[in-house]
Amino acid sequence: MKAKARFESKLDSEGFVRGAVPMTDEQIRHALEMMLRSRAIDELAVKLQRLGRVGVYAPVHGQEAAVIGSAMALDPNRDWLVPAAREQPAMLHHGLPIESLFALYMGRLDFADIPEGVKLLPRQQAIAAQIPHAAGLAWALKLRGERAAVMVYCGDGASSEGDFHEGLNLAGVMGAPLIVVLVNNRYAISTPFHKQTAAASLAVRGEGYGMPGVAVNGNDLFAVFSACKFAVKHALDGKGPYLIECQTYRLGFHNTSDNPAEYRDDAEVEAARVDDPVTKLAEYCLKTCLVSESDLSAMISEVQVELRAAVRTVEALPRPGPDFIFKNVYANLPLSLERQLAKALEES
Amino acid sequence: MGRYVVLMPRLGESVIEAIILTWLVNRGDFVAEFDPLVEVSTDKVDSELPAPASGILVEILAEEDDVVPVGGQIAILETLDGEIQE
Amino acid sequence: MTTARASSRSKNEVEVSTGDTVDMSMLEAIREALIIEMVRDERVVILGMDVGRLGGVYRVTRGLQERFGTDRVIDTPLSEGSIIGGSIGLAVGGMIPVPEIQFLGFTYQAFHQIGPQLARFRYRSRGRYPMPVTIRAPSGGGLRTPEFHPDSVESQFIQSPGIKVVCPAFPQDARDMLSLAIRDPDPVLFIEPQRLYRSLRAPVSRELATSSLGGASLVRYGTDVTLVSWSAAVHLSLAAASNLQELGISVAVLDLRLLAPLDTEGLVEAVLGTGRAVVVHEGPVTGGFGAEVTAIIQRELFSSLAAPVLRVGAFDLPYPSGSLEDYFLPSVTRVVDAVREVLKF
Q1: Which residues of chain B have a CB within 8 Å of the CB of A44?
Q2: Which of C119, C172, C181, C269 is least surrounded, with the fewest CB atoms within 10 Å of its CB?
Q3: Looking at B15-24, C24-33, C60-69, C98-107, which range is the least confident one?
Q4: Which residues of B fall within a CB distance of 8 Å from A52?
Q5: In chain A, whose CA is at the least distance from the CA of C96?
């Protein structure tokens, strides 16, 4: 497939200028670096999982433009980011240190804290449960008169959960400054989109909650960025929530315990790989001379050095002892738990 | 020079063993840390195991088609860092 | 506090009176706590279905929206999941939410947001995001309410470490413990015995009588048997104790007040005083919190017990139609019989 010299943004919503590039050169190079880093983190984390050094890992593979384009529309000093569980590069962009990310996956949990001042919530394992949280958080900002937005991520699978409905409805009624980035990667583990819903699109649900809903090409970094920038401004201007469905494809497996060959054809995956957002952006940057071949090679090597160093730093950290699991159950440890802690320490 | 004994890792939550499919490095060759070392198969997932460290593959302890339990020894790497590792 | 009452207009508001205490119903005591905290801290917000304009289906929050405004006493859509889930977000955003679930039996609709989310949020975030959220919910039988409305399901939240479960049985405790629950940095499930909302009146001190949520309270002294109870069942226990008194049996009644964290020392002390215990609660016996209390008593006091610990609760049935609830709920007779059985050992 011939790479286009000019990165076309194909959008189904009004208000977007087709064909124009909404990012500065610096932003585009930064996005490319983040995409390369995300892809490298995925590859390294999977290898580490195969070596028993990382627990279960879910790669972002294929969704990078949707996740990064949206995160870049926020101001990390002002806005909040509420992840689901497949937004590693967005979390990093929003202020989570790379060592904290690896610490999370490598069981060094006392080094995985979200730093004070980083407006990020922890990852959520219960699908869609984060949506009412994000709605409430956005509502709080409005009640307090703070001019800021909340971006929450969810997937096509999450759109079937009650929390999606309840959270979006609450955000709509309260006029909360919430941007819902629905990354439709067409699979919820093995469940393909047409078995998830009979609807042709998820963006149309926005109207059901009294908010605008748009579908964008989730592999088009600029389209995602434009749509999210618009939605953030909409929220900051006090106009309420926005639903953005980023249509993309999960090129990788669901997670390291998954084998996609059991439920989908290689032919389908290869057809989707043609639109690999990382490849597309790299080609665009080369064609427009934003980066040279040697710049690109340097970026890739630097990312490898950065990641290997982060892994070594984290693996050198001590594993938490049994006392760690007794912290932060309540503000203060109750007497009954003090006794149980003593038992746990005795056992170890 | 150190010896690194490569063990079969646990590839899935309930996986207890794996079959060696294909050695991707020849005996005597150098392999870099995280580069593909061997292909293995379980009933849940087929996987490429990366080399846990950089070194020379000096011994293959499990041949192709062998069934190896999780934690079983599959190879020995000679590494540069002078420690015996497992 | 004087200002709060002097400016009240609603007929359900408490009259200003001289002296150190004011006579209040359970409901008025709860409303009083809400007013105290709403005045004390502007971050406190009340939210739930029908709590604002209507003042709540029991009128607990009557007058509060007029006084504090629609930004602080908020009517939400009919969605328990987002009332609780939204409260989690409000807390992250710096508010102190006091969500109401219209009846404890409807916490089922929000169950996945209570234990797994609200109770664990501080833990999951390793202390970064505390949850100063107080869920208020009425429960308990005796009012012939429809299905789910009377369910006493408090035990189902005990296996969700991270949330406190508070069960006041008297207006003083309702007022003090709700105030303190709202000030607590931890999430609290505050269960209101709806049968007693208007029927139980008692003097309540003008100032808070305590500065901490506290523990169990011996509400009746006795020497032969200790009845261990909470919420409306405390009054059932007191009624049984009166009956037994006439038979020459001296019964102590312990009001646990909090189920989590449980005041084990207070429990042990109260049972040690008699050597015999009967746990009395409204929920079905099997798997009820009485099982936990019983296990703790026998573990801590095995060699001091004169008899096995017995439990009195509802039968292990779905809550029947309101008109038949008297067959189902624990009665004075059932408690008296259990005490007499325990005295046979």
Answers
A1: 34
A2: C269
A3: B15-24
A4: 9-10
A5: A140
Residues in chain A within 8 Å Cβ distance of B50: 47, 50-51
* Any A CB within 8 A of C344 CB: no
Q: Which domain holds residue C107?
A: 2-205
CA-CA-CA-CA dihedral for C96, C98, C104, C105, to nearest 10:
-80
Q: pLDDT, tens digit, for every residue of C201-242? A: 999 999 888 889 989 999 999 999 999 999 999 999 999 999
Q: What is the DSSP string of A319-338?
A: PP-GGGGGTTSSSS--HHHH
CB contact under 8 A, B50 and A259: no
**Chain B contact for A282, CB < 8 A?**
no
Substitution target in C92, C159, C166, C267 with the highest count of A β-carbons within 10 Å is C92
Domain that includes residue A254, residue range: 25-317
pLDDT reported for residue C211: 87
- Give the per-residue pLDDT at A21: 78
Say whether A250 is catalytic.
Answer: yes
Instruction: Report the domain count for chain B.
Output: 1
Among C81, C126, C265, the residue with its CB nearest the CB of A113 is C126
Nearest to A259 among B44, B48, B52 (CB): B44
Asked whether residue C190 falls in the same domain as residue C134, the answer is: yes
Instruction: Test B52 with A258 for CB contact under 8 angstroms.
Output: no
* CATH number reported for the structural domain that contains residue A156 in this entry: 3.40.50.970
The span from the first CA to the last CA of chain A, in angstroms, equals 59
Identify whether residues C175 and C58 lie together within a single domain: yes
DSSP designation for A158: G
Contacts of A259 in chain B (CB under 8 A): 44-46
Say what the pLDDT of residue B45 is.
Answer: 77
- With an 8 Å Cβ cutoff, is A118 touching chain C? no
A305 part of contact set with chain B, CB < 8 Å: no
Q: Examine the pLDDT at C16 and tell me if it is beyond 70.
A: no
Residue C52: both structure tokens together: 């604002």
What's the gap in Å between the CA of C283 and the closest CA on chain A? Answer: 24
What is the residue-averaged pLDDT of chain C? 94
* CATH at residue B47: 2.40.50.100
What's the ipTM?
Answer: 0.93
Average pLDDT estimate for B60-71: 95
State pLDDT tens for residues C77-111: 999 999 999 999 999 999 999 999 999 999 999 99
Contact A50 B9 (CB under 8 A): yes
Active site residues of C: 149
A161-194 pLDDT, tens digit each: 999 999 999 999 999 999 999 999 999 999 999 9
Kindly state the percentage of chain C with pLDDT values over 90. 92
State the nearest Cα–Cα gap between A88 and chain B, in angstroms.
Answer: 21
Q: Which of A5-14, A105-114, A285-294, C269-278 has the highest mean pLDDT?
A: C269-278
Q: Cα distance from B60 to chain A (closest Cα, Å)?
A: 17
Domain co-membership, A85 together with A124: yes
Q: Are C223 and C184 part of one and the same domain?
A: no
Distance, in angstroms, between A249 CA and closest chain B CA? 21
Answer yes or no: do A246 and A348 share one domain. no
